Amino acid sequence: xxxxxxxxxxxDGNSEKIAHDISTKLxxxxxxxxxxxxxxGTFGYMKNLFDAYFENTESIxxxxxxAKYTSIVIVSPVVAGKIPASVxxxxxxxxxxxxxxxxxxxxxxxxxxxxxxxxxxLMPESIAEFATKNTDIDFEFYYKSLEDFADRIRIVVEKxxxxx
Length: 164
Prior knowledge:
Elements: E1 4-9, H1 14-26, E2 29-35, H2 41-53, E3 60-61, E4 71-77, H3 85-94, E5 100-107, H4 113-122, E6 128-133, H5 140-163
Parallel strand pairs: 1-2, 1-4, 4-5, 5-6
Antiparallel strand pairs: 2-3
Helix pairs in contact: 1-5
């Protein structure tokens, strides 16, 4: 195992930007969680809301095995205050393969404590957490908070890589 895997699920493009920002800071590899069957447009949006609200899962595709990386960063939007079905499926499939993981959540609205709790319920021992409103992306405090998040991940990666 070595390096950082940054996995993102893209809603409106903000998660992808955040994934690229954190990947650059950590020299990480990026992978995308993609829906297999969710339609595009309004119907797809409504299905995503419904599935997130009722904590359903979804058929997904991704390319990289998280077990091959020292640390994993999950970047995800919050949908209806909850975890998107595709991200929920990824976590259920892979949480046992991930030793060191953190998550970044983003939303168009203020992220509530309940949203953090939902992620912590599925990812109970995360090494770093960060939340941002989409309107805050590209401001100085976003980059400072992202750097603080990256430092927490970097410490674990360096420690693990030194012990090998």
